[in-house]
Protein backbone atom coordinates (compact mmCIF):
# COMPACT_ATOMS: atom_id res chain seq x y z
CA UNK A 1 0.00 0.00 0.00
CA UNK A 2 2.82 2.35 0.95
CA UNK A 3 4.59 1.50 -2.31
CA UNK A 4 1.46 2.29 -4.35
CA UNK A 5 1.10 5.59 -2.51
CA UNK A 6 4.72 6.40 -3.23
CA UNK A 7 4.24 5.64 -6.92
CA UNK A 8 1.17 7.87 -7.00
CA UNK A 9 3.03 10.71 -5.30
CA UNK A 10 5.98 10.28 -7.67
CA UNK A 11 3.59 10.42 -10.60
CA UNK A 12 2.02 13.67 -9.36
CA UNK A 13 5.44 15.17 -8.69
CA UNK A 14 6.68 14.17 -12.15
CA UNK A 15 3.60 15.63 -13.82
CA UNK A 16 4.06 18.92 -11.99
CA UNK A 17 7.75 18.91 -12.81
CA UNK A 18 7.02 18.26 -16.47
CA UNK A 19 4.52 21.11 -16.64
CA UNK A 20 6.94 23.55 -14.99
CA UNK A 21 10.05 22.59 -16.94
CA UNK A 22 8.35 21.76 -20.23
CA UNK A 23 10.46 23.21 -23.04
CA UNK A 24 13.32 24.14 -20.71
CA UNK A 25 13.66 20.53 -19.59
CA UNK A 26 13.47 19.17 -23.11
CA UNK A 27 16.79 20.81 -24.00
CA UNK A 28 18.77 19.06 -21.26
CA UNK A 29 19.63 15.74 -22.85
CA UNK A 30 16.06 14.52 -22.77
CA UNK A 31 16.09 13.92 -18.98
CA UNK A 32 12.65 15.37 -18.44
CA UNK A 33 11.19 13.39 -21.34
CA UNK A 34 12.92 10.26 -20.04
CA UNK A 35 11.42 10.76 -16.61
CA UNK A 36 7.91 11.27 -17.98
CA UNK A 37 8.30 8.39 -20.41
CA UNK A 38 9.41 5.92 -17.73
CA UNK A 39 6.59 7.00 -15.47
CA UNK A 40 4.01 6.80 -18.26
CA UNK A 41 5.07 3.31 -19.33
CA UNK A 42 5.28 2.00 -15.76
CA UNK A 43 1.90 3.41 -14.75
CA UNK A 44 0.32 2.88 -18.20
CA UNK A 45 -0.65 6.55 -18.15
CA UNK A 46 -1.49 7.30 -21.77
CA UNK A 47 -1.52 11.04 -21.18
CA UNK A 48 2.07 11.02 -19.89
CA UNK A 49 3.14 8.99 -22.91
CA UNK A 50 1.26 11.39 -25.16
CA UNK A 51 3.05 14.32 -23.51
CA UNK A 52 6.39 12.65 -24.22
CA UNK A 53 5.47 11.91 -27.84
CA UNK A 54 4.79 15.57 -28.57
CA UNK A 55 8.54 16.00 -29.02
CA UNK A 56 10.06 14.65 -32.24
CA UNK A 57 13.73 15.57 -31.77
CA UNK A 58 15.63 12.33 -32.45
CA UNK A 59 18.68 13.23 -30.33
CA UNK A 60 16.50 13.76 -27.26
CA UNK A 61 14.36 10.73 -28.11
CA UNK A 62 17.43 8.48 -28.29
CA UNK A 63 18.58 9.84 -24.93
CA UNK A 64 15.11 9.34 -23.47
CA UNK A 65 14.77 5.66 -24.40
CA UNK A 66 18.34 4.52 -23.85
CA UNK A 67 17.52 2.99 -20.44
CA UNK A 68 14.31 1.23 -21.50
CA UNK A 69 14.36 -2.57 -21.34
CA UNK A 70 12.87 -4.79 -24.04
CA UNK A 71 9.49 -5.05 -22.30
CA UNK A 72 9.21 -1.28 -21.97
CA UNK A 73 10.32 -0.85 -25.58
CA UNK A 74 7.65 -3.27 -26.77
CA UNK A 75 4.99 -1.54 -24.67
CA UNK A 76 6.01 1.85 -26.04
CA UNK A 77 6.17 0.49 -29.59
CA UNK A 78 2.67 -0.93 -29.23
CA UNK A 79 1.42 2.40 -27.90
CA UNK A 80 2.95 4.20 -30.88
CA UNK A 81 1.36 1.70 -33.29
CA UNK A 82 -2.05 2.22 -31.67
CA UNK A 83 -1.75 5.98 -31.99
CA UNK A 84 -0.84 5.69 -35.66
CA UNK A 85 -3.72 3.25 -36.21
CA UNK A 86 -6.20 5.69 -34.70
CA UNK A 87 -4.77 8.55 -36.74
CA UNK A 88 -2.45 7.64 -39.67
CA UNK A 89 -1.57 11.31 -40.10
CA UNK A 90 0.36 11.12 -36.82
CA UNK A 91 3.01 8.96 -38.47
CA UNK A 92 4.90 12.06 -39.56
CA UNK A 93 4.51 13.71 -36.16
CA UNK A 94 6.07 10.78 -34.27
CA UNK A 95 8.25 9.38 -37.04
CA UNK A 96 11.48 9.80 -35.06
CA UNK A 97 9.98 7.95 -32.11
CA UNK A 98 9.11 5.09 -34.42
CA UNK A 99 12.63 4.95 -35.87
CA UNK A 100 14.37 5.27 -32.51
CA UNK A 101 12.28 2.60 -30.79
CA UNK A 102 12.82 0.20 -33.71
CA UNK A 103 16.57 0.76 -33.52
CA UNK A 104 16.45 0.14 -29.77
CA UNK A 105 14.41 -3.04 -30.19
CA UNK A 106 16.76 -4.30 -32.91
CA UNK A 107 19.67 -4.04 -30.47
CA UNK A 108 17.81 -5.78 -27.65
CA UNK A 109 16.22 -8.64 -29.58
CA UNK A 110 19.59 -10.21 -30.31
CA UNK A 111 19.59 -11.50 -26.75
CA UNK A 112 15.83 -11.56 -26.19
CA UNK A 113 14.50 -13.54 -29.13
CA UNK A 114 11.33 -14.49 -27.24
CA UNK A 115 10.00 -11.03 -28.07
CA UNK A 116 10.44 -11.54 -31.81
CA UNK A 117 6.90 -12.83 -32.34
CA UNK A 118 5.43 -9.85 -30.53
CA UNK A 119 7.55 -7.46 -32.58
CA UNK A 120 6.52 -9.23 -35.80
CA UNK A 121 2.89 -8.84 -34.72
CA UNK A 122 3.41 -5.11 -34.20
CA UNK A 123 5.17 -4.82 -37.54
CA UNK A 124 2.22 -6.58 -39.17
CA UNK A 125 -0.05 -3.89 -37.74
CA UNK A 126 2.32 -1.24 -39.01
CA UNK A 127 2.28 -2.83 -42.46
CA UNK A 128 -1.51 -2.55 -42.47
CA UNK A 129 -1.17 1.10 -41.50
CA UNK A 130 1.22 1.73 -44.39
CA UNK A 131 -1.14 0.01 -46.85
CA UNK A 132 -4.03 2.09 -45.50
CA UNK A 133 -1.93 5.24 -45.74
CA UNK A 134 -0.96 4.46 -49.34
CA UNK A 135 -4.61 3.86 -50.19
CA UNK A 136 -5.49 7.13 -48.52
CA UNK A 137 -2.72 8.87 -50.47
CA UNK A 138 -4.08 7.44 -53.73
CA UNK A 139 -7.54 8.69 -52.81
CA UNK A 140 -6.06 12.09 -52.03
CA UNK A 141 -4.21 12.12 -55.36
CA UNK A 142 -7.45 11.29 -57.18
CA UNK A 143 -9.25 13.94 -55.18
CA UNK A 144 -6.49 16.41 -56.02
CA UNK A 145 -6.94 15.64 -59.72
CA UNK A 146 -10.68 16.22 -59.41
CA UNK A 147 -10.09 19.44 -57.51
CA UNK A 148 -7.57 20.60 -60.12
CA UNK A 149 -10.10 19.89 -62.86
CA UNK A 150 -12.79 21.71 -60.91
CA UNK A 151 -10.50 24.68 -60.33
CA UNK A 152 -9.59 24.77 -64.03
CA UNK A 153 -13.26 24.71 -64.99
CA UNK A 154 -14.01 27.38 -62.41
CA UNK A 155 -11.16 29.54 -63.71
CA UNK A 156 -12.34 29.08 -67.30
CA UNK A 157 -15.89 29.98 -66.26
CA UNK A 158 -14.55 33.04 -64.51
CA UNK A 159 -12.68 34.09 -67.66
CA UNK A 160 -15.79 33.47 -69.78
CA UNK A 161 -17.95 35.45 -67.35
CA UNK A 162 -15.51 38.36 -67.47
CA UNK A 163 -15.45 38.17 -71.26
CA UNK A 164 -19.25 38.07 -71.41
CA UNK A 165 -19.47 41.03 -69.05
CA UNK A 166 -17.01 42.95 -71.23
CA UNK A 167 -18.93 42.09 -74.39
CA UNK A 168 -22.21 42.99 -72.69
CA UNK A 169 -20.80 46.33 -71.55
CA UNK A 170 -19.45 47.09 -75.01
CA UNK A 171 -22.72 45.99 -76.60
CA UNK A 172 -24.69 48.23 -74.26
CA UNK A 173 -22.38 51.12 -75.06
CA UNK A 174 -22.76 50.46 -78.79
CA UNK A 175 -26.55 50.21 -78.40
CA UNK A 176 -26.68 53.46 -76.49
CA UNK A 177 -24.49 55.13 -79.11
CA UNK A 178 -26.73 53.74 -81.87
CA UNK A 179 -29.87 54.93 -80.09
CA UNK A 180 -28.37 58.38 -79.59
CA UNK A 181 -27.44 58.42 -83.28
CA UNK A 182 -30.99 57.49 -84.25
CA UNK A 183 -32.37 60.18 -81.97
CA UNK A 184 -30.05 62.75 -83.53
CA UNK A 185 -31.09 61.60 -87.01
CA UNK A 186 -34.75 61.92 -86.00
CA UNK A 187 -34.13 65.40 -84.63
CA UNK A 188 -32.34 66.39 -87.81
CA UNK A 189 -35.19 64.96 -89.90
CA UNK A 190 -37.78 66.77 -87.80
CA UNK A 191 -35.82 70.00 -88.04
CA UNK A 192 -35.52 69.56 -91.81
CA UNK A 193 -39.25 68.95 -92.02
CA UNK A 194 -39.93 72.06 -89.94
CA UNK A 195 -37.56 74.10 -92.08
CA UNK A 196 -39.17 72.74 -95.24
CA UNK A 197 -42.63 73.54 -93.91
CA UNK A 198 -41.52 77.05 -92.99
CA UNK A 199 -40.14 77.53 -96.48
CA UNK A 200 -43.38 76.30 -98.03
CA UNK A 201 -45.40 78.62 -95.83
CA UNK A 202 -43.09 81.49 -96.71
CA UNK A 203 -43.34 80.69 -100.40
CA UNK A 204 -47.12 80.50 -100.17
CA UNK A 205 -47.24 83.80 -98.34
CA UNK A 206 -44.97 85.35 -100.92
CA UNK A 207 -47.05 84.01 -103.78
CA UNK A 208 -50.22 85.30 -102.15
CA UNK A 209 -48.62 88.68 -101.72
CA UNK A 210 -47.55 88.73 -105.36
CA UNK A 211 -51.03 87.71 -106.45
CA UNK A 212 -52.52 90.53 -104.41
CA UNK A 213 -50.11 93.01 -105.94
CA UNK A 214 -50.92 91.81 -109.43
CA UNK A 215 -54.64 92.04 -108.70
CA UNK A 216 -54.26 95.56 -107.41
CA UNK A 217 -52.23 96.59 -110.45
CA UNK A 218 -54.76 94.99 -112.77
CA UNK A 219 -57.58 96.76 -110.98
CA UNK A 220 -55.88 100.11 -111.28
CA UNK A 221 -55.19 99.53 -114.97
CA UNK A 222 -58.86 98.74 -115.57
CA UNK A 223 -59.96 101.88 -113.81
CA UNK A 224 -57.60 103.98 -115.89
CA UNK A 225 -58.92 102.58 -119.16
CA UNK A 226 -62.50 103.28 -118.10
CA UNK A 227 -61.71 106.90 -117.54
Automatic annotation (TrEMBL):
Transmembrane segments: none annotated. GO terms for cellular component: nucleolus. The keyword Phosphoprotein does not apply. It is found in: Nucleus. The keyword Nucleus applies. Its main location: nucleus. One of its GO terms (biological process) is maturation of SSU-rRNA from tricistronic rRNA transcript (SSU-rRNA, 5.8S rRNA, LSU-rRNA). This is Small-subunit processome Utp12 domain-containing protein. It comes from Cryptosporidium andersoni.
Amino acid sequence: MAENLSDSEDLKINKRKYRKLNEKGLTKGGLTISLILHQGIRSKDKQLIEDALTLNNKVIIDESIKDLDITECCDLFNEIIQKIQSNPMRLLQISNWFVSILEKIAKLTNINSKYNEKIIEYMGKFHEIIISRLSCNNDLINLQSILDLFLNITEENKIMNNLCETISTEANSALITHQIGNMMDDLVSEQSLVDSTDEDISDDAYNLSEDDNISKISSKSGDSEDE
